[in-house]
Amino acid sequence: MTTAFRSARDIIIRTDDWAQAVSFYTSTLGFPQVYRSENMVGFETGAFRLYVEKGEVHGPVFEYLVQDVQEAKRELLAAGCTVVEENASVPRCYVRDPYGVTFNIGQAPAT
Predict the structure, then answer these.
(1) What is the tens place of the pLDDT at every residue in 86-101?
(2) Is the pTM value of this prediction over 0.70?
(3) Which CATH number fits domain 6-107: 3.10.180.10, 3.30.428.10, 1.20.1560.10, 3.20.20.100?
């Protein structure tokens, strides 16, 4: 594999019980909100940033940053990964590795 992957600090969960999840992370755990949109809230937790999104429930999604998302996707598919969800308008490309871990392939900032 020629693509260099680097983890981001972001983890996203999606829930259909969004308002209660936001309340839990704000009130119960006391995480400060650092991002808010109509469908997503981001919390600063310390070691990572947790995003809670409205929608169909799925497990945690980690994020790996690459220089070329399409090249990384091709290499991952050739290595046995599967695309779980893709939406170029977000942009988002969720991939599940052969061991069950789901992650987003994100565009790394230009260096």
Answers:
(1) 988 878 899 999 999 9
(2) yes
(3) 3.10.180.10
